[in-house]
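Order emerges. One example.
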Amino acid sequence: MINPIVRLVECDLGYFFILKHDTVISKQVSETGDYAKEEKQYLSNFLSSGMTVLDVGSNIGTHAVYFSNLVGGRGKVYCFEPQKTVYSILCSNILLNTCNNVVAYPYAVGEKNTDILVPSPDYTRPNNYGGYSLLHSVRKESGKMITIDSLQLDQCDLLKIDVEGMELDVLRGAQALLRSYSPVIYLECNRAGKERPIVLFLEQFGYRIYRHGWKLLAVLSPNDFQGFIDEKKQVNSRIFVSIACLSDLDVFNTIEDAKQKASFPERINFGVCLQISDDNTEFDLLKDLDNVSVDRLSIENAKGPIYARWRCEQLMKREDYYLQIDCHSRFVQGWDSILVEELCKAEDINQNCVISNYPISIDNLQKKHWLDRIGHVNRYRYIDADGIKSHGSLIKLPSKPQLSLSISAALLFMRADLRRKFPYDPDLNFGLHAAEQVLYSIRLWTHGVDIFCPTTHTVATEYQGARDRVPHDVKQVQSKNRKNWPKATWTKVKYLLGLDDIHNVDKIYQENVQNLDKKYQLGSIRSVQDYFEFAKIHDQIKKTFDGYMPSNDS
């Protein structure tokens, strides 16, 4: 008789029973010969013969059988699967592959021993059966939950947890084991709001936590695993938020919203360059806010956004990441964790990179039909003798980070060390779009740094109305001091981009460009022409700027 829900396949692990209608694990085993192959290969770095593994959330046993082979006859694998049908298949695969060192339990794992109800889906209908949580409102049957500590194990080297949102419950029921054996912990963490309590809980035991894709790796002694752990992906890190504020009281709301929405608000430091009138007292409370450093700059001495952002950089301490935003921004829940995850995704493509996009409008942040699109800087909208302006378009949220042509000044995220290596040039007074965004982007590009659009939203900004909050007297002073600076600064930018000769640089910048610090110059890993060709604007650049000499032309 043909079984309506199970079939036998030959795969990389040997012969395996799989669920016919499962849309994830069994399907992948059937189509590719394995499931989570790269993940298991990574975990093999932490295992050797004789070790003990706990596989909490085993499903049909793709990890359990793999672990069994790694730890050998002197080792042990304990696995747990509460769905009765799936548990039966797990046991069959253990027997079929002669895994005599595996002990399987038909239990859920949590923070207490108790009777529970376990999902019992219809296995004749296509579904991701491994994606069911105990909290799902589906057909259920009686079952049991146990704690890991109740097993009183005498060894544990790796604790792998995949329990659909109940990871913290498993850890709470394993505190004695964590204290006694300090196993490497590898767990799923892909649900909003779950990361913070897990990280804080594990830190109590001295763990260092790292991201590995959308999983978390926790180890007590990272030095024991050098070569297998990327320190740059540590979760226990700090973010510096740079905010250039031109007399906009919404900066208070921006900081408050950032703190409220952060997964780890205590690890966020703000640096604000506050450009205001000397007699202004409305911002006095800003300096008293926790984790906020303020550089108060008289509006008489302000020199535009680039100079203000440079002054923000001087407020950085020992943070791990740098985020640049506008002073009228709002945030999605868990924005800090999401940004780090997005940067890690981009770094898997190019280790030297930043992420940036046009933020969604604050007005649209709560509108679902806007949330499936993101502002990608992917074209140029203006190229003429008086300036260059990058632009973009709304694209469907991509499945992986997308290469961009330029940064958006309203959202730029990168490693702090990279920002320290490539700071803003403070001598670009009242520079416009080309100076603030295009020049900086090409600086990064020529140094081998790629710019990526992330796969999801993190920050929103206000595109209209912000200037209306700037006091009239501030606008007047700014207008007076700006004078011809934008034009003069553009001559410097043109020279730095190779679009004009040094003799045509405004006299006010002549000494500056002749003695320009190397950290503000373009790099040599990729040429400016390489960039223009990448951006598909090289022909237009040649037609527009007589002084441009293509560097790659023979």
Remarks:
- The mean pLDDT is 94.
- The domain at 239-469 is CATH 3.90.550.10 (Spore Coat Polysaccharide Biosynthesis Protein SpsA; Chain A).
